[in-house]
């Protein structure tokens, strides 16, 4: 009879003519999921927590400003124009801030830049309270343009920690996009509740406090911070091959987000449910958040360029649902369901876009490259916000849903023309 060793977990018993082996070896533990493996890395949970706090106001500021300005001045066109101006200023200033972050480090640049942006938010509140002229609103909101790209800085940390591990980086990018959507899901709800329950400026004030706190906590995590590169060897990201077409796609995609926000707030206001606008917008972000987490848990097949075209095709098709819901039913409840479904194409689109941006950005300038993509989005959000506000003001809130649908179609056509499915993938 075989003799058990010290590590053998089998029990040997002998009957009259049979050797019975009972195996007590424990079942192999299930492999941890991709997200558990991700956050097993030292320091990742700490910087993610601070970054989430800093990102939550990104979903609050736009809604807070629109509700605050439209409520006091009685004009959605003015509210949309002010927010568009602030986003356009951010589109100009953000790449320079990101370049400084790459060159001098996240901790040295992000916190002072955040302080200046918070002062701009406080100035906007003061101008609204004191009934300042319209130009003061534009100037105050433009001063918030120094807000650092917290999502880009977090993605830069993941890229630094997961260098040479594309599968894990895909999961990290998907998580970051889901985190964006979570913040844009909770942010509008929190902003609408604060502005409706307390006073119109409450959303902006709370958002400014959260932004400053979150950035302070995030930048305090020095162990995961990418090293500063004083003189990057590569060319500027804007001149790198493949970046400009992606910025064009980001511009059109951003117009979807900007117009949808203004139009939905106006539609809910027309139904007599302005405070419900945040919850309705949150459903769109909820659909995107769920889709982003699922997208990160699987390993997508095919090159990212081809996947981007298909993602944009899905987004263009789904963005017709809010227009149909608003036009055919006029029901806010039906519209909420349509936005939930429409949002499901957003996160996969943005994850794939950011993956391509990372692939095409020269080494040592990753934060700048990703900020350029966000700049394209902000530029699109600014244009979409202004266009949506104009259509609401001069036509109707229902007709305003033509703007996001048209913007999504434009993004798809641009991607299909620049990167037709099946075309060869360029080398980095």
Automatic annotation (TrEMBL):
The keyword NAD does not apply. Signal peptide: none annotated. It comes from the Bacteria. The chain crosses the membrane at residues 52-70, 77-97, 109-128, 245-268, 274-296, 308-326, 332-357, 369-392, 398-418. Keywords: Membrane, Transmembrane, Transmembrane helix. This is MFS transporter. It comes from Streptomyces tendae.
């Amino acid at each position: 009879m075989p003799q058990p060793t010290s590590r053998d977990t089998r029990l040997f018993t002998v009957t009259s003519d049979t050797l019975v082996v009972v195996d007590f070896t424990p079942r192999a533990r299930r492999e941890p999921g991709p997200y558990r493996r991700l956050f097993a890395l030292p320091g990742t949970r700490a910087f993610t927590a601070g970054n989430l706090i800093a990102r939550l106001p990104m979903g609050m500021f736009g809604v807070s400003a629109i509700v605050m300005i439209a409520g006091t001045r009685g004009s959605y066109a003015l509210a949309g124009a002010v927010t568009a101006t602030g986003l356009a200023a951010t589109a100009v200033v953000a790449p320079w801030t990101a370049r400084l972050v790459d060159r001098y480090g996240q901790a040295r640049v992000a916190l002072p830049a955040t302080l200046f942006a918070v002062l701009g938010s406080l100035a906007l509140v003061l101008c609204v309270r004191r009934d300042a002229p319209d130009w003061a609103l534009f100037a105050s909101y433009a001063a918030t343009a120094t807000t650092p790209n917290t999502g880009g800085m977090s993605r830069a940390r993941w890229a630094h920690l997961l260098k040479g591990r594309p599968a894990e980086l895909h999961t990290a990018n998907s998580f970051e996009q889901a985190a964006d959507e979570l913040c844009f899901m909770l942010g509008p709800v929190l902003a609408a509740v604060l502005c409706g329950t307390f006073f119109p400026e409450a959303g902006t004030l709370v958002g400014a406090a959260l932004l400053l706190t979150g950035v302070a906590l995030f930048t305090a995590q020095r162990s995961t911070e990418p090293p500063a590169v004083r003189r990057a060897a590569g060319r500027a990201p804007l001149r790198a091959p493949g970046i400009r077409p992606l910025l064009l796609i980001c511009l059109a995609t951003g117009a979807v987000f900007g117009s949808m926000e203004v139009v939905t707030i106006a539609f809910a206001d027309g139904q007599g449910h302005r405070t419900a606008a945040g919850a309705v917008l949150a459903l769109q972000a909820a659909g995107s958040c769920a889709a982003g987490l699922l997208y990160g848990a699987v390993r997508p097949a095919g090159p990212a360029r081809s996947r981007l075209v298909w993602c944009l095709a899905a987004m263009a098709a789904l963005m017709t649902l809010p227009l149909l819901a608003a036009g055919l039913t006029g029901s806010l409840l039906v519209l909420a369901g349509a936005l939930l479904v429409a949002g499901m194409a957003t996160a996969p689109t943005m994850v794939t876009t950011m993956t391509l941006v990372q692939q095409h950005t020269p080494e040592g300038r990753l934060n700048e490259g990703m900020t350029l993509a966000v700049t394209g989005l902000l530029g699109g959000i600014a244009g979409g916000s202004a266009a949506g506000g104009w259509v609401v003001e001069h036509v109707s809130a229902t007709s305003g849903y033509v703007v996001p649908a048209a913007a999504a179609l434009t993004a798809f056509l641009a991607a299909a023309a620049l990167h037709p499915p099946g075309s060869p993938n360029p080398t980095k």
